[in-house]
Amino acid sequence: MGYVFSQSDRELILREGIIDALKIMVTHNRIPRDVASDYLSGWLGAHTLLKLTEAEKEITHLSGVISRLKLLCSNIDRDHKIQFGDARIGQYKYELKTFDGWTVSLLETVLSIISITDPKKATMKSGEIQTAFSGLMTKRATELHPFLKDPSQFKKYVS
Description:
Layout: H1 7-16, H2 18-27, H3 33-79, H4 87-117, H5 119-143, H6 155-158
């Protein structure tokens, strides 16, 4: 793959996604069809495989932190009374921060994969998740229910 994309080509790819951008470039004779085919195979094949491998690693980290949190929570639950100075509170907070970090990392990977073919959708989804969580947190506050579930808040995100 010796072709060097111009700045306008790269902007087009970031705006339209690799499939539509390459179609446009081929249609306007900005890139030969066989070169576009090579790049398309690379992006949808090798590049996506790298991102999927990254996702697997993130899921492994998530699985580990979930296991540690479950063990810690079971331990706390057995005691029935935990004191404010208990070291497990700090461990709980640390593991939650780790859980949050790997969850966000996995979400970034997923949105990066989506952006390969549909960057507008990936950008839109990042705003939709913010809106969904904001709506959920507002509803929890209104109903004074910190663990309220409301999947309807996320319908737009998953559609």
